[in-house]
């Protein structure tokens, strides 16, 4: 499958490398066609690893991952182009973390709205599914590095898109427990989990942990 990834940072590269290893063709997209990080990544990963602009990656991908910085996601998606994402699944991993006031981030949107909702409103013909934003990237692509069962969450308006994303999480990344929280408004809850996750990282002194829902 051809997969477009918006972003060139650690999350984008880790997701991209996992997908290349699984036999998919992956293009990392950025503001410039020859982003240095993307060029190096593509050279290291081989022939199925490509790079281009946001628009080129969005057009290339049958499925698109949004791995951009949350405060820049809407601008990046506008550069990707609504026509290039029309009818496609956009797997949104971004978080609206704002570091402008110092090392402890606040959320640029919360409570009555979320970045996931903003993206869906801005691109109504794109099938947005929020997931994997509540954990470290190494856990995203390899949940077995944590002992025991733990949960990934999905949020989105399109039931078929969520079912496909759940299948991706299970078959490509090895997730056993995926909880469908409901429509895209449930992005508010998972995005607001991230400041807690960051605090726990500091207390535990490790990023290799995740949430498990028990009842």
Detailed description of the structure:
This protein has 215 residues and is α/β, with parallel strands linked by helices. The protein has a single domain, classed as Rossmann fold (3-Layer(aba) Sandwich). The chain contains 9 helices and 10 strands. The strands form 2 sheets. It has an 8-stranded mixed sheet with strand order 3-2-1-4-5-8-9-10, with helices on both faces. The chain has a two-stranded antiparallel sheet with strand order 6-7. 43% of the residues are buried.
Short recap of the structure:
The chain is α/β, with parallel strands linked by helices.
CATH superfamily: NAD(P)-binding Rossmann-like Domain
Measured between the Cα atoms of the first and last residue, the distance is: 38 Å
Report the β-strand fraction as a percent range: 15-25%
What class would the helix/strand composition place it in?
A: alpha/beta
Give helix and strand order, one letter per element, not per position.
EHEHEHEHHEEEHEHEHEH
CATH architecture: 3-Layer(aba) Sandwich
- In which order are the strands of the major sheet placed? 3-2-1-4-5-8-9-10
How much helix, percentage-wise, in residues?
A: 25-40%
- Regions with little confidence, pLDDT below 50 for 5+ residues: none
Tell me the major beta sheet. 8 strands, mixed
Name of the CATH class = Alpha Beta
